[in-house]
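worker-03 picked up job from queue 'complexes'. Input manifest follows; two sequence lines, order preserved.
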Amino acid sequence: MAISGWFVALLGFGVVPIILTGSEWMLPAWVGFVLVLAAVDLALAGSPRALNLSRDLPARVRLGETVQSTLYLRNDGRRGVRGQVRDAWQPSAGAHPTRQDIDLPAGERRAIITQLTPVRRGERRAAHVTVRSFGPLRIAARQATIAEPGAIRVLPPFNSRKHLPSRLAKLRELDGRTSVMIRGQGTEFDSLREYVRGDDVRSIDWRATARATDPSGAQKLMVRTWRPERDRRVVIVIDSGRTSAARIAGEPRIDTAFESALLLAALATRAGDRVDLVIYDRLVRGRVQGASGPELLSRMVNTMAPIDPQLYELDWAAVPGLVRSVTSHHALVVLATSIDTAGSSRGLLSVLPQLTQRHTVVVSSVTDPSVLDASRERGSRDEVYRAAAAERALLDSARVSAAIRQLGAEVVTGAPADLPPTLADRYIALKAAGRL
Amino acid sequence: MASIALLVVLVTLLITRAGSVTGDPLSPTNAAPVGAMAVAEVLADQGVTVTPTGSLGETSDAASGADEPTIFIVDADDTLVGSQLDDIAADAGHLVLMSPGFGLLDGFAPEIALAGSVSGVLDADCAVGAVDRAQSVLGDGTGYRLVGDAPDAIECLDSGDDVFSLIQLQRDGYLLTVIGTWDAFSNERVAEEGNAALALNLLGGADDLIWYEPSIEDSLVPGAPTVGELTPVWVSAALVTLLLAFIAAAIWRGRRFGPLVVENLPVTVRASETMEGRARLYQSSSARTHAIDTLRIGTVDRIARLCGLPRLATVEEVTATASSITGTDRGRVHALLLGDVPSSDRELVALSDALLQLERRVAHAVDPTSRATTTETPFSESTEETTR
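worker-03 finished. Artifact:
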């Protein structure tokens, strides 16, 4: 049950007859009159429990986009329902408007449309629908909360997809290069063509030249061309442990890792490589294997959407086994984690040799641009101490990076906005060098 | 000053003590000068049962329980009206009214009227025993005059102009005495003249004396109207209505539109918090050497990178390279990169500034076109400015 502002106004209006009559009996009489009116109104209100609810929801939405959630209400009761409806979403679902007026005669059906603009990744839920049904006098209302769960999966935004066209163009440039530019064990023979000025003389194929004669009889100089090899494996391991919850420039590390992984996966699957994703702390939180093409990306975002960092430290000892369970062949292993201090990276450093033995390993980590800025600001005493602390942080991560490089792995660091394209560039460079 | 203070204290004490010992005038339990405990005590010693009462009901009960008692009514505040006395008068043997006011006389003894105040010593001049035995009485108090037709009235203590301080009337079944000599009954004055004889004889005529001092509860006369009586009936009703409307408004606005939906909130930890914490730690412990060393390591690393030195180059090598590139004195660069120990925060700030400037000069020397150096002030100029 609920009352409206009209009830309050009507009750307050009782002052007028009380003053006019000057009788002490007017007060109980007026209160009684208002209460009777409210009771009558309440009795005449349509029952909100008689409503039949159903939802029509899109299954997923990318973070930052807006979707429509439709709630259908069918009135199975004998009386019409007039009043307000609240479709109760979690605050982070960004529902608007939160309450809407409804006039639903008996036996009819109406749709309530709510715009959802989620502000957080993950599963956003609606728990129930509350209906407030006023009587004909609009004094009092019947109110009921009806459980009508609904959920929408909010996918990572994949903002870094804007970098994809330029990286794909770079990738295409790799095709048809001569061997000197891209010599390595991972390159494949592509074709033979005639020598043009600028080609490396070392790539001239003399046997092919011997065979190649023009119909006119002129000798042609043939060179071999190469293309980057295909069907390599890329294994992305994302750290969903404690340190991934830390925010850099307002974005959790794990979100940056997701962005990088999505860009890398989009690029690698176009380049013909097979991408597998594992999100791990002490348990495997998400795993995408054996998908390719557009399905890969959709499965990846779906897997990533509900995953939040856990309170555990990543169990590095299990990572080599995890990679082995994905592929037994040589692969590019991308570890998206954080390298802050030697102490917290000890686990990573201890298992890196096992990984670098078989695979090409890239450790990708987000760096905090504010730390770099802080190391340059030395105006006051406070800032100098801050700069010293920032310098210490930079030195620590530089030491860890050096240690990782010594163990044979590559390090990619960057600010949250820069890390995904930097990682993509490193992938292209590795591919060009035939190290995949 | 001290004597003035003492005087003030004394005066204050006197005033407050004088006020505090006053008590009820002519009360049988009041031993103060204005009280009448002396009379009551002496009467009790003489075998008279003195019953002090404070209300009409109490007096009525006491009177009906005694055999023709003397009822002494001391109505100092003119609380009673005459008609209230009819009830107790029926049980009384002798009713003595001490200085009754207009209200009391008007209803109970209309033949007696107030005749202003009286002062001075009055001589006995009538056959009433008590007055006769007193011979002379202090008359300070109220005088009365007989106005109605009362043939059996005895008027005593004449102060001239038909004003008497004691008038006695024989009523149906009891004797009524109206007496105005207030001061004569008080502890302070009762021993003067024949006051004691008047008081004791007048009140000690029967075995029982009921000493009635009316209290405010006995008053029939309404006081000033209260705010509640002055306000119209509808005001409180209207206020209650508004209060109810207020409560209803609270319910209207406070009624929840269904329960909230629970949400797990993410942790919000800034990654730079460790850095900030470490900075505060350095500062609170004044770890100047530690701080400047960290800054130096960073600077040396960057200079080495700028100059193309290997990663494992020593500080000496870096110092030599930097001083030769920038044309600065080698000892000065060495002191900057290694030697100087800051002894105060001011020196620390100065050192860190110098480190930054050295870095800029090296960067400028290595690559004169680099964007970072175009906006910077050259080293020498800024030092000139600081010395100026």
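worker-03 released lock.
Residues 1-155 of chain A form a domain with the Immunoglobulin-like fold (CATH 2.60.40.10).
Chain A touches chain B through 72 residues (CB under 8 Å).
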